[in-house]
Amino acid sequence: MDLRQLKYFVAIYELRNLSHAADHCSVAQSAVSHHLARLEDELGTPLFKRRSRGMDPTAAGERLYEHAIDIFIRLRMAEDDVKNGGKVLSGEITVGMPYSVIKVIGVELMRAVRERYPSVTLILKEALSGIGFDHLVTEQCEFSLLYNPPQDDRIRQKPLLDEQLYFIGHPSLLGDAPDPLEFRDLTEYPLMLLSSGTFSRALMDKPQLLHSLERASSVRLASVAATIGALEAAIGCTVAPQVLVADQLQRGELVARRIINPEPVRTLYLAERSNNSSSFLSEKIAQLVEELVQDAVLKGRWTAALLAAGK
Predict the structure, then answer these.
(1) pTM for this one?
(2) pLDDT value, residue 139
(3) Kind and range of the H or E element at 303?
(4) C-alpha separations of 267 from 84, 98, 157 in Å
(5) Fold of 3-83
(6) Which of 198, 233, 238, 255 pairs as cysteine with 130 (C-beta 3.0–4.6 A)?
(7) Confidence band of 199 (pLDDT split at 50, 70, 90)
């Protein structure tokens, strides 16, 4: 099977007539008939029912037409992608991010896309990491930033940074003392956990530690806004990165105490679908996202440790 055979086949399918298909393709009718016969021979099944006044596709012909149209669409996309590789980028791209990541780099990303790639439409899809993982595998995003995603053949992952977690709460609950807290002592405080969709390991990738917190937690929330509101109202404390409530910490409305023995850390990954062939657009935006993450860490706006891709 080759592209010329598929081209003639599509013309016959759409015009339902060998003569009209030949005229459309600017070749002799015998050439169209010859290539159709070869194609049917290669596939081992008739693609059309010959009638006195035309040709009707068989079930196999219907299926091949769907594949052929998809092939030609992808060829045009490939051609456009390669031609535009060194030129002005255009198109629409959807990127998934948790709230805390958007808070750090969201504005900078939107500004950079507008300035560097004015013909690109950027869609930022906010979601907790578990939900963001579902969005990625169901093709609602080109790529996503996820915390501790599961090992899954459907996605490929690149680690970007390790982020330390703190015990955060109202001063009336945690006091003003800067002393660290032992991990085992966290359960002595009113505890709330931010759930993360289909998996909770986005908080920390240590099941034993996570389960101990889950058992002691009296409140589970799937809303960042509700979690921050509950922290401000002194309803409970939670384990989270400082960046989640950076403004409240700076104003003294909340307190963040370091956790020791052990120190909980979570990893941020850039994740894409394994079966997704990167376009120049997705490559450029992913590269831009990585640059902004690195810049935020190096300039101290994000308390985290940058990682090499080989982690």
Answers:
(1) 0.67
(2) 85
(3) none
(4) 34, 13, 11
(5) Arc Repressor Mutant, subunit A (1.10.10)
(6) 198
(7) very low
